[in-house]
């Protein structure tokens, strides 16, 4: 539908998005809206409630895994010969376990668990995100954008949606993530009872464009009386120091109560070519270690990053429900977790003949990388496996590929100011949880909100940042 009213509604949707911080930085003085869908994706109330209640258990599980130092070391060591970055992460983890190198931090696990709602199997876990688990604020803003369109442009909204949806699914990710972070921040502040404002430090990447999503979270924290500070690892290298009773101090700021990492999931985050007294990566990883050796709330700890890796996900998926009770779950809770975890297989010398006999769209090959570009699909899987050195096998895993139902009606994606119809839109569901030292941040539940990213079923990589996916929200399907 391209009549003048639809174009006017689209234009106002773009203006609403930009006015409410739903944007990507393009230059020092400009920004543009990310791609978004004009109407939400339908989900049954039963499936949504199953996810919202069970993701708390996933967070509880991952916290327990992250605190089991022996399990983490045993799980990660086999992949270190084929992945130098994880070799460095494991070295940091082991350093924190050494005598005299106590990890005094308060672990604050902010995790996004990503799911595909398979046509036959229902929601299945795709991956955990325990470091730089962002875009929760954009998830809420997209929900609010759809609410705005449904009220301001009801005729166009109904036409775009095909009238196949019921009420919108509430999403308070900004407020809930801020509430959880504030709880941990104030806990540390009260332990020290020092003067001055409670202070939150966000560790960021240099010159990144996805800053508005971060600022939305910061603004919510500022509304709760918390000062927010942004620094890269390089800026922290010679800016952090130790205060009395292992208080973490930052030059020009003072005491730090909470550290939230939006960087640190790739080698480039630790590179600083101007440091000449020691290897730059070693210097900046030492900065990360220093943070954890002080009394400060931290997400993500090195242990949390390792616990949410594809390697640990593989090992957990291979365990029985009874075996998962090792990680502070009851058998009933472990069975609920197992129902969401997807099927995975380790890569070995038998993988090539085995996968060659499977349908091309049945499995996906993954390495340990975070973000887009780390998955291999279809006919590219066998050639990739053939190129691997046996020492690299453990770095990779095979995961069953899930196939969500496409929308029944044409979906309309707004990209770079224009409407693009998509006939086969599918969605990935990200569910946020917050745990503080293993305890749910909100009474009995840790669920904090959701992020929906949608794309054509023909596209394998669907990240919003890459430009291939689009922001979306949820609505309950009509009976």
Automatic annotation (TrEMBL):
* Keyword set, alphabetical order: ATP-binding, Glutathione biosynthesis, Ligase, Magnesium, Metal-binding, Nucleotide-binding
Q: Nucleus as a keyword?
A: no
Q: What is its EC number?
A: 6.3.2.3
Occurrences of domain Glutathione synthase substrate-binding (ranges) = 199-307
GO CC annotation terms, alphabetical: cytosol
Pathway, per UniProt? Sulfur metabolism; glutathione biosynthesis; glutathione from L-cysteine and L-glutamate: step 2/2
The family database entries (InterPro entries) matched by this protein are listed as:
Glutathione_synthase, Glutathione_synthase_a-hlx, Glutathione_synthase_C_euk, Glutathione_synthase_N_euk, GSH-S_sub-bd_sf, GSH_synth_subst-bd, PreATP-grasp_dom_sf
> Per the entry, which co-factors are needed?
Mg(2+)
| GO molecular function, a single term | glutathione synthase activity
Q: Tell me the domain of life.
A: Bacteria
Pfam families for the chain: GSH_synth_ATP, GSH_synthase
Q: Which family does it belong to?
A: Belongs to the eukaryotic GSH synthase family.
Name used for this protein in its record? glutathione synthase
């Amino acid at each position: 539908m391209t009549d003048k009213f639809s174009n006017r509604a689209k234009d106002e949707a773009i203006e609403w998005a930009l006015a409410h911080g739903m944007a990507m930085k393009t230059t020092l003085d400009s920004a543009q809206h990310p791609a978004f869908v004009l109407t939400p994706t339908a989900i049954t109330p039963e499936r949504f409630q199953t996810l919202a209640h069970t993701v708390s258990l996933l967070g509880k599980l991952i916290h327990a895994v992250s605190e089991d130092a022996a399990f983490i070391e045993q799980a990660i060591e086999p992949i270190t010969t084929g992945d130098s970055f994880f070799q460095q992460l494991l070295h940091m983890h082991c350093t924190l376990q050494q005598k005299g190198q106590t990890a005094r931090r308060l672990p604050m696990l902010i995790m996004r668990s990503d799911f595909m709602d398979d046509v036959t199997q229902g929601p299945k876990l795709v991956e955990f995100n325990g470091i730089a688990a962002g875009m929760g604020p954009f998830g809420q803003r997209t929900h609010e954008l759809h609410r705005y369109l449904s009220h301001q442009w009801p005729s166009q909204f109904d036409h775009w949606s095909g009238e196949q949806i019921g009420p919108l699914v509430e999403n308070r990710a900004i407020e809930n993530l801020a509430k959880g972070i504030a709880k941990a921040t104030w806990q540390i502040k009260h332990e020290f009872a020092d003067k001055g404002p409670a202070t939150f430090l966000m560790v960021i990447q240099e010159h990144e464009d996805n800053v508005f999503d971060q600022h939305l979270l910061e603004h919510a924290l500022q509304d709760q009386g918390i000062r927010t500070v942004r620094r890269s690892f390089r800026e922290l290298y010679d800016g952090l120091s130790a205060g009395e009773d292992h208080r973490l101090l930052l030059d020009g700021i003072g005491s730090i109560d909470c550290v939230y990492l939006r960087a640190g999931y790739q080698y480039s985050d630790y590179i600083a070519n101007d440091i000449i007294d020691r290897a730059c990566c070693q210097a900046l990883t030492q900065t990360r270690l220093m943070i954890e050796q002080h009394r400060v709330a931290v997400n993500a700890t090195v242990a949390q990053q390792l616990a949410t890796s594809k390697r640990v996900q593989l090992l957990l998926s291979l365990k029985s429900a009874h075996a998962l009770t090792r990680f502070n779950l009851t058998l009933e809770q472990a069975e609920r977790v197992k129902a969401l975890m997807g099927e995975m297989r380790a890569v070995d010398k038998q993988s090539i003949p085995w996968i060659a006999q499977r349908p091309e769209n049945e499995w996906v090959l993954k390495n340990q990388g975070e973000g887009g570009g780390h998955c291999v699909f279809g006919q590219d899987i066998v050639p990739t496996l053939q190129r691997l050195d046996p020492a690299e096998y453990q770095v990779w895993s095979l995961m069953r590929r899930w196939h969500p139902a496409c929308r029944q009606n044409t979906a309309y994606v707004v990209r770079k100011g224009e409407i693009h119809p998509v006939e086969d839109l599918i969605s990935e569901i990200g569910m946020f949880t917050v745990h503080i030292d293993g305890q749910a941040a909100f009474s009995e539940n840790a669920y904090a909100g959701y992020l929906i990213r949608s794309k054509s079923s023909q596209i394998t990589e669907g990240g919003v940042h890459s430009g291939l996916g689009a922001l979306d929200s949820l609505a309950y399907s009509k009976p």
